[in-house]
Amino acid sequence: MPSGRLAILAGSLTSLFLSFGFVDLSNAATIDDITLRDQYGQETSLAEIKSPAIAIAFLGTECPLAKLYAPRLAELATRFEGDVTFLGVNSNVQDSLTEVAAYAQRHGIKFPILMDNQHELADQLEAERTPHVFLLDEQRNVCYSGRIDDQYGISVARTKPQRQDLAVAIEELLAGKPISVAKTAPIGCIIGRRRSTAPHGDITYTRDIASILNRRCVECHREGQIAPFPLTSYDDIEGWEGMIAEVVTEQRMPPWNADPRFGHFKNDARLSAEEKESLLTWIKNGCPEGDPADLPEPPEFAEGWRISEPDQIIKMRNKPFNVPATGVVKYQYFRVDPGFKEDVYIEAVEARPGNTAVVHHIIAYVTAPGERKTGLGSMLVGYAPGTAPFITPPNSAILVPKGSQLIFELHYTPNGSPQTDLSYVGIKFADRSKITSIVGGNQAINGKFAIPPYADNYEVGATRTIKRDLDVLSVTPHMHVRGKAFKYEAIYPNGEREVLLNVPQYDFNWQLRYEFAEPKRLPKGTRIVCTAHYDNSAENPNNPDPTKTVTWGDQSFEEMMIGFYTYITPTKE
C-alpha cells in the first residue's frame, strides 16, 4: 500500500463510489432525532441525551483503523465524561451483533455502539468511513466531522498524533470558542452499505470473479492471515465492495510497487488490465453471484510448512515478544546462534510469523562469525504477507559458514489489542554430494549518508562490482519510512546500461522480494548500481521529524540503504 506520494487520503474517490451505487447522499438533510438499539438491545435516542455535546463515531469490527482508534475513543470518552456523550455507530451490513459486542469488549469500549442497519444515521450525517467521527453541539448541530487525529492512516503510522482533531474540537466547543478546524477528511474503510444496484450483467462471481480473487487475493484474505477480512466466498464480499473498488482503482492492492516497464518477475502480483476491468464492472453491476455450478475449486494452502518438514527450526528468541495495542513499535532485532559447528548447505528456508495478525515483515540475516553490526549480513530469507519461502533451484544450495549467527528483524503493526509473537525460521539442509551450484546473497550498500532536514528527494547511491559471472535470481530493496524510490541498474563491461528494477513509489510497509522470471545473467565486471531517493519533508506522512538530519541506523526513524540481491553460481569455475 503506497503512502503519502500517491495522495491516497480517504474520500478521494467519493464520486467513483456514487457511480458504483454504494451511497446516495443527494438528499442529505439536517440531523433529526433517531432511536437505535445498541449491541445489547438497549434503545438510545439522540433527543433524550442531555449532555452539552455528543460525539458519534462510525466503527467497523474488521477495519484496521477502527481497531487502532477504538482505544483512543475509549480514552476520550473517559476524559470528557460528564460533558460529552460518546456513541459508536455500526452501519456495516457485514457486521453482526455478536461481532460488534466482541469488538467493544476487546477494545474496552464502555459507551453504546448503535446498530444502524438501514444506514439511517449514516445517511443523515453523510458518514463515509470507519472511523468517521461527528461532534454535535447542544442544539445537535454538527460542529466537527472527520478523523479522530492524524496518527494513523493508509500506510501511515506516526509515533504520536501531530493534531488531535476531535479532542481539540471538543475542548473548543466546551469553552464556547469557534471550532478552529471544523472538517477533516475521514480516513479508513468505506462503510459497507446495502447494494443499491440490482445484480445484473454477464460477469458473475462464480464464473469470473472467484478465480481472480483466488489467484490474487485469497493468499492473505483468509481466516488467520494478516488481511483484515476474508475473500474466500461470495458472502465474504458483502459490505466490502467499496473498499475493493478503491484499492484496485488506486493500485494499492494487490501490493506490487515495481515499474512494469522494466524486468519480468515470476511473483508479479499485479492484476491484469482484464482482471481489473472485470472486478470493477462486476461491482458496478451489483455483484451478481451466478450459477453455483460454475464455482472453481478453492485454492489449497499449506496449513503447516510450505517447504518440506524442516531439519532445524530456529526461534527468534526463547520467549514471546509483547506487542502493544496501539502506537508504533520500533524494529525489533534478535540475535540467535543456530549452533552451526561446520559449514551448512541449505536447500530451502522459510520464515514464519508466530502471530500473523501483527507481524508485518521478518528479515533473517546471516552474519559471519564475529560480525556485530546489525543488518550488515546477507539476507537469508524474508517474510511479508503473501511472500513465498525461498527454495533453491535443483542441485543448488545456500552455503552458510560455520559459526555464523542469525539476526531476526521484526516489524510489528499493532491492531488495537495487546498481542504476543514468537516468530521463527525453518531450514531444510541439502545433500552436499548433489550440489553443483551455490546460491549466494550480497548487497550494494551505502551507510555513509546524511539526509538534510526537509529534503524531499534526497539521492543516495551504492555500487557493487561483480567479480565473476552470476545469474541473479532476485532483488530486494530495503529502506525505512523516508524511503521514496529505489532503482537497480546493471552497467555491463561493454558500457551498456540496463534497468533491472525500478520502484518509483517505495513503501516500507511492503518489504517485497522481486524474483526474476528467468535468472538474469551478469558477467564478470558488471556493476550493480542502486539509486535510492528519500523524502525527509513534512509532506511525507510517515516522517517522524522533518527537522532532523537522518543517518544510518537500525530503527525505522533512522534510515538504511541496501540493495540486496540473490544469485546462483557454479561451485567450481
Task: Give your account of this protein's structure.
The chain has 4 domains: 23-190, 3-Layer(aba) Sandwich (Glutaredoxin); 205-294, no CATH class; 302-435, Jelly Rolls; 437-573, Jelly Rolls. The model is unreliable at 1-29 (pLDDT under 50). It has 9 helices and 30 strands. α6 crosses α9 (273-284) and α8 (241-249) packs antiparallel against α9 (273-284). By secondary structure, the protein is α+β, with helices and mostly antiparallel strands. Strands 12, 15, 18, 19, 22, 23, 25, 28 and 30 form a 9-stranded mixed sheet that branches. A 5-stranded mixed sheet has the order 5-4-3-7-8. It is globular, with a radius of gyration of 26 Å.
Keywords:
Jelly Rolls; 573 residues; 9 helices; disordered N terminus; 4 domains; five-stranded mixed sheet; globular; nine-stranded mixed sheet; Glutaredoxin; 30 strands; alpha+beta
The gist of it:
With 573 residues, the chain is α+β, with helices and mostly antiparallel strands. The chain has helices at residues 14-20, 64-79, 97-106, 120-125, 165-174, 205-216, 234-237, 241-249, 273-284; strands at 35-37, 43-45, 53-58, 84-90, 113-115, 129-130, 132-136, 142-146, 152-153, 156-157, 189-190, 312-315, 321-323, 332-336, 344-352, 359-367, 378-383, 390-391, 396-400, 405-412, 419-421, 424-429, 437-445, 458-465, 470-478, 483-491, 497-503, 514-522, 527-534, 562-570. The strands form 8 sheets. Strands 12, 15, 18, 19, 22, 23, 25, 28 and 30 form a 9-stranded mixed sheet that branches. The protein has a 5-stranded mixed sheet with strand order 5-4-3-7-8.
